[in-house]
Amino acid sequence: MAGLADHCGVCGTELSFALPICPICKKAVCESCAFRMGGSVFCGSACANAFFFGGQEDVEDESDLRLLEEE
Ligand SMILES: [Zn+2]
Ligand SMILES: [Zn+2]
């Protein structure tokens, strides 16, 4: 059932099940890339802020990516 596979729009990891979709940019996000806020799943804090604060683009999304990679 290849149709069920999905790949993360952030890190590109392929997984054998459907991933949550960022409601802002429509990218699928895997467990390790998911940014959770307010019960929703986003691809990063930039999209989370856009969702909750109306798309203000004053968030440094690149520093956010670095934080996620540190683990
Ligand atoms: Zn990922
Ligand atoms: Zn997004």
Description:
With 71 residues, the chain is an alpha+beta fold. The protein has one domain. 27% of the residues lie in helices and 14% in strands. It contains two helices and four strands; from the N terminus they run E-E-E-E-H-H. A two-stranded antiparallel sheet has the order 1-2. A two-stranded antiparallel ribbon has the order 3-4. The longest helix is centred in the C-terminal third of the chain and has 10 residues. The model has no long low-confidence stretch (mean pLDDT 82). The chain binds zinc ion (2 copies).
Which descriptors would you attach to this protein?
71 residues, alpha+beta, two-stranded antiparallel sheet, two-stranded antiparallel ribbon, 2 helices, 4 strands, 27% helix, 14% strand, binds zinc ion
Shape: elongated
Spatial extent as radius of gyration = 12 Å
Give the terminus-to-terminus CA distance. Answer: 32 Å
Which blocks of ≥5 consecutive residues have pLDDT under 50?
none
Number of helices: 2
Please identify the structural class as seen in this structure.
alpha+beta
Strand element count: 4
What portion of the residues fall into strands of 2 or more residues? 5-15%
Domains counted in the coordinates: how many? Answer: 1
Report on the biggest sheet: 2 strands, antiparallel
Spatial order of strands in the largest sheet: 1-2
Element-by-element helix/strand order: EEEEHH
Cofactors, ions, other ligands: zinc ion
Overall mean pLDDT stands at 82
